[in-house]
Amino acid sequence: MTSSPIQFHKIWIEQCAATEGIRDQFGLDDALHYLIGEKLFSFVQASEEHPDFAVELPAFVAEIRRLFSAQEIGTFLDQLERTKVFAPLEPELDVDDLDDDPDDEPWLENPVSGAKELLRFFRIRQLLQE
After folding, report:
1. Which of 80-88's residues contact partners 24+ apart within 8 Å by CB, and which partners?
2. What residue ranges do the domains of the chain occupy?
């Protein structure tokens, strides 16, 4: 008996289903942070390197747009832009305390990662607000 391979590029379906429960139990903000702020950002990053994810991206975005109103999405993205994308580093952050792993550096300290993250944010904004 062979089992079917796990289709990671289809995980968005389960994540969208989970979002409805998150919204009911924890509220709109937590649901938006979970699905857009965490899952969609990770999915878009994966789609940049894996064609299976890229093919699924339009369906994932369409489902997000079904789950949330344009106003809810816009308000969330505006807040995310103000607090994460263009927010300055916290002054008490001690760079000497960070691990040497470049993936753990704040994105503003790493120009290439910062540029990729910024482009990813604006790509997500464009996808969700078309």
Report:
1. 80/36, 80/37, 80/121, 81/121, 81/125, 85/117, 85/118, 85/121
2. 8-82+101-128
